[in-house]
Each structure stands twice: as structure tokens, then as C-alpha cells.
Amino acid sequence: MTRRILVTGGAGFVGSHVVDLLVKAGHEVVVLDSLAAHPDGPPPWLHPDVELVAADVRDPDAWLQTARGVDAVCHQAARVGLGVDFADVGRYVADNDVGTAAGLHALHELGFRGRLVLASSMVVYGEGRYRCDTHGDVRPGVRTQADLDAGRFEPPCPACGRPLAYAPIDEDAPLDPRNVYAATKVHQEHLCGVFGREHDVPVTALRYHNVHGARMPRDTPYAGVASIFTSAVEAGEAPRVFEDGGQTRDFVHVLDVARANLAALTVDEPVAGAFNVASGTPRTVLDLARSVCEGTRLDPLVVGGGRLGDVRHVVASPAKAERLLGFRAVEPFAPRSLAWT
Q1: What are the C-alpha distances in Å from 221 to residues 11, 227, 340?
Q2: If you average pLDDT over every residue of the chain, what do you get?
Q3: What is the dihedral of CA 146, 149, 152, 155, to 10 degrees?
Q4: Which residues contact 242 (CB under 8 A, 6 or more apart)?
Q5: Cα(207)–Cα(264) distance, rounded to whole angstroms?
Q6: Cβ pair 122, 170 in contact under 8 A
Q7: Which of 226, 215, 204 is nearest to 274 (CA)?
Q8: Taking phi first (over 0 means left), then psi (-120 to 50 degrees means alpha), and beta for anything else, what does residue 213 get?
Q9: Where do the DSSP E strands lie in 93-226?
Q10: Helices 99-110 and 60-67 sit at what angle, rounded to 10 degrees?
């Protein structure tokens, strides 16, 4: 069945890969993208067979123009990453919260009854899942700058202070955003959830874990850690690794993320709810840095310290996405070889 699908942020990192798969599958695609990251015009990877509207996602009229007559909406447009500091709060709220609200208002006005897929993030969990030998599953407190500066990286049990072991987190875990970006992603999920309930629209929130691969944004404070490390290596510099490098994440390839979106947009019966989009294989940030350095004479530089708002361990269970969406990550972990192509 051919569908007409709106992809916001469709010229960007993840969005452009989603567009490629949708066009390949025979769907009609319209892209809403401000091209703020591409001031000289659409990037060369944007598929020529899409309808592009270069406009701000915060503009309700742009949504009205692009969402009219669509069967599904894939909302990828967002300001991502930890940012510079709290002074970025207005930019995050404007791009993520206000942009989403503008879109939902337009969909309300248009009487939209298709399916809505939201690009969410593992940052909504805050710290991941931890277990104490005595107290079972616990939620550790917020790490302070003093903790980071003193090398106290592992969060202790909030009840007894003993060391904790991390475990894969699932979608039923409580949401606990610990930085501005995370707070806006939670709000996006809540706004879309309210819209879905009031309009009988199935909303699928895909919680991406750490995405790497071709077309990553580069040379910006809003880029992810894989991009930051790759930019350093491309400049002939050793990637700087905060803390002791033992922070654990799930690094998932962008092609797998795009496949998860394709599944959510096109499965025979839409599946509402939140889904981890992850590889299922935990790796440390130091593992990532070493992979990016492969084939060079560089070695990662572990510098200690850390950034407020970063969390220690977040790894995911991808079981729900496999069971209900038929999605399973298959791409290899190779951030160095696939960084910018």
C-alpha cells in the first residue's frame, strides 16, 4: 500500500535515512526541514524524489502546508545533544516543545487520523536501570559536579550507599530527565500522547539510544559523542574521554534506526506506545573512542571530570520493539569507517 508520509527534519541525520527507505519502498514523501544546518541549500544526500518545503518546524502554516492529505507523520525535527549550558534552554524548548505543539495544532485543524511516529530518546530515562544486592531495583540520585571532579563516577545505592550494577532498561521504567534536552523529549512524548488519546491517533515514540553512522552532524556542540570523537580524529587530535571512559551506552547504527521508523510507519496495524531502538549490545564510551581511532596513530585521552547532565549507564532491552514492530538491529558497530559517508 502506497502512503503519503510527512517527515520533519527529513534532510537531517536520521530523517534523511528514513526518507531513503520510504522512497525505496514506494511511498510518496514530503519533507519539512528548515535547512538551518545547510545554509547553502539541501544537502547532496536528500533524495531527489521528495517534495521539500524549506520552513521552520515552529511555523504552524508550514505544518498545514505539508501535512495536508498525509497518511502518516514521522516527526524527526529536533534540537539534540547536551548543548553548551543551561543558556540553551530557550532554543531547546522552542525547537522541540513549541515545534511539536505547532505540528499537533495543525494536525488537529486538519482532522488528521493517520499514524504519528515521534523521534524520542533514551535520555528520557535519566540514569538507566540499577540493582542493589540488598535493595533490588533502585533509582540513584543526581551526580554532582563535586562527585565528577573527585572521580566518584559510579552512582551509589540511595538507600545503603553500596555499589550498584547496571541492567538493561525497558520501556516501563519511570521517566527521569536530567538535562534540558531530556526534559523536552519527555514533553514531546506527553504532548503527542495527549493528542493521540484525544484524536484516536496511534502514537509510536521511538526512544533512540546513541546513534552513529553516515551523515552525522559534525563540528557542533549539539552533536553526539560519536560525531565529537570523529571530528577530533579527522583533525588529527586524540578524542577526549570524560570520566574514566567506563560510561556504558548502547550505540545503534542510523540505518537500524531508519528501519525502526519504517516498521512503525508501515506495519499492517499501527502499534502505539514507546519503544527502545537499540542494538542490545552494551559498550563503553572508551570502546567507542578506541573504535574511532582504529587505523590511526591516535589513542583516546581519558581526561576525567565530566559534564553535569550526563548519566553513567544507560543500556536498553530491545525486546519490545522486536516483538511488536518486528525490528531488530543488524548493522555492525563501526563508527570510524562509516562516519561521514
Answers
A1: 19, 10, 17
A2: 93
A3: 60
A4: 285, 303, 304, 305, 306, 307, 310
A5: 12
A6: no
A7: 204
A8: left
A9: 115-121, 129-132, 136-138, 165-167, 203-208, 210-212
A10: 50
